[in-house]
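Budget justification aside, the reviewers requested a transparent look at the raw inputs and outputs of the sequence design task funded under Objective 1. We therefore reproduce one unedited record. The lines immediately below are the structure tokens for a 319-residue chain.
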């Protein structure tokens, strides 16, 4: 793979970095990542989020992505969707439906504790396959090493989203080019291969596991082969040939959240934003019965004011 050099002048240009570059000691090479504030979240699962200050760290990360993002984008396969401009959940869902319609089975895998398990030495090696500028690499190495230890790419950094995609881009190209597998899709560390022969999928699983363990130094948290007719569970939706439902856990979480808003008559701007987000999530799936059930429960248990608020902000119309 051809590497890219001579990035430094672009990186420190006024258009990319403005005044912050000199103040952050970046040009002199003395930049060090600030101390993290670590916060724990519990939805949808327990994770540590690493928070850095806006200045200088977030500015630096955005400046790096401004320069490196277009370079990395050119290397990504079509069927990688997470954290890529112009792609996202709904594009991934529609692409998954294409595969569901023309295949009988799916091999579904995800990586065990993906971001915390990324080895720093492997991450650096992967980055050097495309980037050759030593000063840029010094900054990237500093960010990679910033949380200590030999593993972990901190969730919360803008650069971590890109590091994760660049890292698993190795897997994407292995599947597409070495295994020549056509119907493949990845969203972050959740990836799937589709086919019409169950034995072929089990055989290819063995090859992928070997690559993941020996080249990326990661492991599966789960993997299974099953008929798509039972519903392909991916990115919060269950995909069937002809329609899409919300994943059961996502439907339960949305229902409980909406009922709590109604229960406590929380008509704040934050609640309005939550309901709008849920509407945007649900409009891509067949959710009419679920929405009517929630609306009925709100009206029955919490009264007309709550019911009118939920109907108005959640767009529970009868059309």
């Amino acid at each position: 793979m051809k590497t890219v050099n001579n990035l430094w002048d672009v990186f420190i240009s006024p258009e990319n970095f403005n005044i912050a570059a000199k103040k952050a000691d970046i040009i002199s090479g003395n930049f060090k990542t600030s101390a993290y504030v670590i916060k724990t979240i519990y939805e949808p699962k327990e994770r540590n989020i690493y928070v850095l200050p806006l200045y200088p760290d977030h500015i630096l990360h955005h400046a790096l992505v401004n320069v490196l993002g277009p370079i990395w984008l050119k290397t990504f396969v079509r069927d990688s969707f997470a954290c890529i401009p112009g792609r996202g959940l709904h594009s991934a869902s529609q692409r998954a439906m294409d595969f569901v319609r023309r295949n009988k089975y799916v091999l579904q895998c995800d990586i065990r504790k993906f971001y915390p398990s990324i080895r720093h030495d492997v991450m650096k090696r992967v980055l050097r396959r495309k980037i050759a500028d030593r000063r840029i690499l010094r900054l990237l190495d500093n960010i990679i090493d910033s949380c200590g230890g030999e593993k972990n790419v901190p969730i919360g950094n803008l650069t971590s989203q890109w590091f994760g995609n660049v890292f698993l881009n190795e897997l994407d190209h292995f599947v597409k080019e070495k295994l020549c597998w056509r119907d493949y899709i990845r969203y972050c560390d959740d990836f799937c291969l589709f086919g019409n022969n169950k034995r072929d999928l089990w055989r290819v699983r063995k090859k992928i596991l070997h690559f993941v363990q020996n080249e990326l130094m990661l492991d599966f948290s789960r993997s299974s082969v099953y008929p798509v007719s039972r519903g392909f569970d991916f990115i919060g939706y269950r995909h069937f040939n002809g329609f899409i439902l919300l994943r059961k856990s996502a439907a339960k979480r949305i229902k409980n959240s909406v009922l709590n808003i109604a229960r406590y008559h929380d008509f704040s701007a934050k609640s309005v934003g939550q309901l709008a987000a849920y509407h945007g999530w649900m409009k891509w799936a067949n959710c009419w019965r679920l929405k009517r059930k929630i609306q009925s429960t709100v009206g029955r248990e919490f009264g007309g004011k709550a019911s009118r608020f939920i109907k108005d902000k959640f767009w529970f119309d009868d059309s």
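Strands lie at 37-41, 47-51, 105-111, 184-187, 190-195, 220-227, 232-234, 237-240, 243-246. The radius of gyration is 22 Å. Computational costs for records of this kind are itemized in the attached budget.
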